[in-house]
Records
---
Amino acid sequence: MMPDSNDLWFLPLGGTGEIGMNLNLYGHDGRWLMVDCGVTFPKPGRLAADGSMHHHGEPPVQMADPAFIAERRETLCGLVITHAHEDHVGAVPYLWPLLQCPIYTNRFTAEILRRKLAEFNMLHRVPIVVMETNDRRQIGPFNVQWLALTHSIPDPNALMIRTPVGNIFHSGDWKLDDQPLIGHGYSKQTFTDLAIEGVAAMVCDSTNATVKGHSVSEGALHKGLLSAVKTAEGRVVVACFGSNIARLHTLAAVARETGRYMGLLGRSLVNMSSAAKAAGLWHNADELINPAHLGYLPPHEVLVVATGSQGEPRTALRRLANGSHPDVELEAGDTVIFSARAIPGNEELIAALIGQLQGMGVKVITAEQCDLPIHASGHPAQEELEAMYRWVQPAIAIPVHGEEEHMAVHARLAKQTGVPKTLVGRNGDLFMIRPVPGMRRQITETGRLGWLKQALVRVV
């Protein structure tokens, strides 16, 4: 099965009908372009996109099976990574030997990717081409332009993928944040200009399609976090996603204003902050304390940012709750702030962790309890989706990056904003954009691979 010069196809192998392990293919004129290559971390007892149930003993790191394109890798002209979240970039070290194509991405994502590849002794094998915002690059028959949007990680990019038979706008993960604090912002004109040129299809993030209103800006969190930290008497530990560099900058400002020293606990936090410095995205004024020194400071001078906001085992916050962290020991009267919301499926883990902390006499503050916002999602709510459709005016809307409920609501929103046609499918479906819009269901098998004992195994 191969697209000819009149065809323009979209084929998701991961990330459509689910949230995580994104792997997308665009086909035209005998060639394929891959967009994103991510992982997921399965939770026992939760359904996978294929309807199977995750169970104990599965590989802890899983990714979309790339067999369809690996068998045709001579037709794969490149891999574009939109941003540095694990569900978009994390599978590259595992799957690149099956793909062996150039990788195109932005500066910050390239910095994260290089660190991942170095762990696998692959750093000098993988060709990485660093692209700047608004750059255009001819990759096989696809002319790809990197467009500025905002998300909960520095410098995410949407893509305009141009071909002689039609153009596709691929949103990546995004939100409309007028105060992103770190990295580039966005411009409405970028997207209204696309409408003037003509967009055959918009392939777009559905994560928060069921959420009314507009997402909260990162710039709006300072007041709430300052209030929560200012009233705390002992040590303060803030749990948040390690990739949110803007949140770290806000917390660093809060530390300065409250006379506290800030340190990071957790490998992903340390790695992300280091990458941000290397990419020129870290304010020189935000000095961090060596974690080994935190235990020697008076409690009221300590502000710790820790991994583990989802209750995951072996993370820094879990070790603090267990009393097994080598650098910091929590005591009654300390405060833990969850500057994050639960990812669906993690509610029980988080509740157990909160109960454990409260049993130690630690005060726990969650985003749901606060009158002022202390967390902001990185994905568009309904008002943002409607705005983007009004700006881009695609002929076809293709919801992705969501479960069935999210994508169904997304499709209805697109129709309500005037999009003539919507196509809703799942991994393995072929979305035919040109010459005649339509779908062919399950044209290829899809599935998951897992990393177990230093080898890839198929997950049943």
---
Amino acid sequence: MPSGTILVADDDAAIRTVLNQALSRAGYAVRLTSNATTLWRWVSSGEGDLVITDVVMPDENVFDVLPRIKKLRPDLPVLVMSAQNTFMTAIKASEKGAYEYLPKPFDLKEMISIVGRALEEPKLRRPEPEADGGENMPLVGRSPAMQEIYRVLARLMQTDLTVMINGESGTGKELVARALHDYGKRRNGPFVAINMAAIPRDLIEAELFGHEKGAFTGAQHRSSGRFEQADGGTLFLDEIGDMPMEAQTRLLRVLQQGEYTTVGGRTPIQTDVRIIAATNKDLRQLINQGLFREDLYFRLNVVPIRIPPLRERIEDIPDLVRHFFALAEKEGLPPKQMDQSALNMLRQYRWPGNVRELENLVRRLTALYPQDVISESLLEHELSQPTVTSLDEETGEPVNLGASVERYLNTYFETFGDALPPPGLYHRILREVEYPLIGAALAATRGNQIKAAELLGVNRNTLRKKIRDLDVQVLRSAR
């Protein structure tokens, strides 16, 4: 167990007491203060082996003090706490040189673990903090699920690691990719996005890598591809699960060798791009179906980030509504508010279209209704509009699970033509059904495995084994 003196700065006496007790039990010496001035005096005099501090202090914002601390003592780890819990708070903490950012309330065991890890690490000089990135809010939400995403993004900002973003349609995958670019080390380079599902299959390679004049019918001149356009910046490959196999092979070669050739070209071109991929599909299922290369998956899935659907972060709905009202007002629409009963109704809705659906609803309410305050009755009228239901094409009846599976299998077999799928189809299909079933049960119970096991009618140990074997993401509600 590492030892040392921990300097704790927080104007909340209860927080100071809790941290003092926890750190003392862990074997550390602790010094407590309620202001930034005393903290700076201790640090400047050489005291302390690690700092734990809140952002907002009575006399000074710690983000103003942190650059001075890092300049004077670059090897001193600083853990920043905050109850503001926004994306920009996490990014600022990273930019100013903080070792770690923790949103309040935090887990004491996690805090002690981070302290131990920080004190055990070699004392290496950290890079000077970057300039302030401004107060524009690219991501909105203070829920536990979003807090974890903010922390991961903050750690990734000064790296070029390849990132795979997974999430349902409408959750904001491109926003996360843009945030990684706009606040990262490649911010001065281009951000180039390409949607694999929106490009004809026979044109994807030319779109990605460019083509030479005469490379194919209609190629009247040389054209640069997205890799060339993104040189020095970030290439965002959206809906990567829809990339055809032949293009996957060429992409894998680029990732392995760092170079590519244009369609019809022979001279290798060096590439300098950061790859961020995104999908709303389960790529592991596509691998089992022979539709996605496993080696490409591991090349892209260096840092996986799962964006939660809106139904798993309903605590963020009020913030999102205010954010979208503010955006609409900036675009010239009249200012609006939403009363509490209407917000409560939004929390009960399932949001199949996720954040995009909420944004469209807010814009529609702003444009169509003259009332300054959106009431529950107005909202009920909008949410009661007919929604699209999946129907059987022949009978017009709703499609049940059995019919859906049968249709899926028919389409699946068609993709192999006269050949047969790889062996093991029975277990693959069961696994594909189990994964969304267990995921839906965990989402409905807010990550409570006891309730989820009861809902499914299985033993809790069986559920735990399934979660581990299927690698199901577990959302844990805030305590």
---
Amino acid sequence: MPSSGVPPMPPSSNVPTTVTPSSGATVNSLEAEEISRRLKKSLSETLTRFYPFAGRINGCLVDCNDDGVDYIEARVNCVLRYILKSPDGDFLREFLPIQKDSNEAGTGRLLLVKVTFFECGGMAIGVSISHKITDAHTLSKLVNTWAALTRGSSEAAVFPEFGCAASFLPPSKDFNFTMPAMKLKHEKAVMRRFVFDAPKISMLKARAASASVPQPTRVEAVVALIWKTAMTSSPLPLPSVLRQVVNLRKRLNPPLPDNAVGYLLSYFTIKSPENSEAELQGLVKRLRDGIGEFSENYVKKLQGSDAISTIFEAAKEVGNLSGRDDIKFYNSLSWCRFCVYEADFGWGKPIWVSLAGEAPGPDIFVLLDARDGGIEAWVSLKEEEMGSFQCNEELLAFASMDPCVHC
């Protein structure tokens, strides 16, 4: 498993985690070497544009020292179809360049890549990136730019815009405070993948619609169903709070450009109804009201003179809520509409883009686009709660658990 550093191209150069399709033929050493050479060359060109990722974290700063990123190459003696037949979240960790619980995970490197070649000619590309300076939206732009440059399509590559946060986040005279942290419960959790195909989502949206929200979004309908099922799967009838992460780029006024890079996320929280048998329509309405209030109140404060205190108070509230034992605190993140299936490196668009790794803790939902227009939801719960969750009849009327990935 060779490893090498990939530096950025010189600034003057203008040279123009993802599973790619199988070519149907066994990949030999020379083919893999040539593919890897092309990937490293285009990654170097990508780092010329996304230059902070070739640097190192130094305290609260990023040292843009052009030290490069880690590139790991691996070859496995099995075919890709075997992996896709029965996807396993824990096994998928093997395709990541680093494990989150390793000694190297907390170092100053910002981007790591692992390319795995299969006997059949298929390939898996695993990417790990630091959340200290970036988010999933930025990661999708970086990967799609890398893919475009690999296939020789420089016009499709993105020139990122840095420093956009400065347009709404004024410099503070005093950063001598500690941001309150959300308290993830470090309890053993089980993560399962639930796939909502496009026709089932249409049916779910119809069931979730009401006079208050006549046209729920895909994400609203799926999150509401998962939240409802999780609440009914909990052995204790506790009230719950859902924290929904929001991409700020389109919420600000004026909106930030789509190629704005950085950690440009925020969130809002909503409480469950008093009745533990919360109906789907009511939860969708709470989600819609939550984003409306977030856009009307929080975003305006965020673009005002009290931006720092606004962020601090919101983080303090979430920190307090996540540490309480008398409520169930759920976290929901959506990676939908990030165009992850557009990352064509020159060998075809991905047949599957997914998460990998163990569950970071219980009570977490992560949504990604599926290839057919549906949604893949990775749900992390305590083992005893997952046993009830994965057997819920209403959930299974719209979702399939851990289905195979069709090539």
---
Amino acid sequence: MDVLRRSVIGTSLAVVAALGLSACGGGGDDSGESNTLRVTLVNHVWTENIKQALPEFEKQTGLKVEVTQLGEDQLSDQYNVKLNAGSSDIDVMMYRPLQEGKLFAKNKYLADLTDKTKGNAAFGFDDFQAGPVQATSYEDKVVGVPIITEQEVLYYRKDLLSKAGYSAPPKTLDELKSMAAKIQAENAGTAGFVARTGKAAAVTQFSSFLYSFGGDFVDGSGKATVNSDQAKQAYAYYGGLLKDHGPQNISTDMSWSEAMAIFTQGKAAFYTEANSLYKNATDPAKSKVSDTVGFAPFPAGPAGSKPYNVPSWALGINESSKNQSNAWKFIEWAAGKDQTLAQQKAGVPGARTSVWANPEGIATYPKDLADAIAISTANGVGHDRPLVVKVAEAREIVGQPIVDAITGKDVAGSTATANEAFQKLLDDEK
């Protein structure tokens, strides 16, 4: 979840944009709160779209919105400083539910939105997909509203499949392996499969393999399970697929950008990745294979097709804000049905079920990608990494067996070591 993210999140320095018209209707807010709303957002396509629509919101509400727009790392740094200090000068905050959501909720940085969401028929909270809602809830309370989602899908080369005699993409992981092997054998210099290999970076995309083999990072009681039989099979499969059918001299530090580059340069037949990055593969300016890229649902493993369906970004309200009623007005609008549909049409995958069922909402997506996403949202798992406070440390731990499997080391021994370290992290967080 790591992405719409790096493909669309800029690296520019912080830009503070005081946006908005002065209150057009005058009246302002009758709650005694400030008419100036301070919203902190990340550099993102979603943010650019919202900024363009802000005058409409300001005219409707009589509020003035001041947007602080930051790069991802700078956003995290600001939150670390201001939220830890209990600062009230952030009202609405854009945050990553799976990266810092548990930390923020546990530390009571996020206001409880349960009554505002579930008791609000006009907002239609039941329209939001179950997986993203799960990720923006904490201890049965809603603490955020998902605005951008990601699902893992299969990218593939239609021309290479046709050349090899295949009329359809693989429906199972077994088929994926056999098809990757055949295509690789028949096309010198072309890998059968490519995906992320970096220890931490690969965890999110590996997660769908883990779930589809019937495993998870923890069990129902919260115990580490990265050494379960299902997990061992998933690690061995993912690592083995890259070791045997991946690029020659494969490195073990690839994130999405390196893996995507191999695929878009025509050097691989199959690639599993977040759907939010699809334009990198279909844009002729970025991809040599743009006219022959296909998309398919994540292939089924022994437990079925269980890709992640997660919110990469959500909106929350700072618990220390003195402007919470107006902050909710912004979220209600920005994550409402109209804005979600507008974002969806602009290529930003939304968390509402209705936008995927609306022909307008999928008109800009390749049909096979829209079909794959529909399946993913129905079967999806609401997390793509361990749900812990120390996410970065956990990813390093559970990602090590991925690297070991790719390099041909003993998977059983690696998962045993990882499980012990991960269990210690879980115990330390209690």
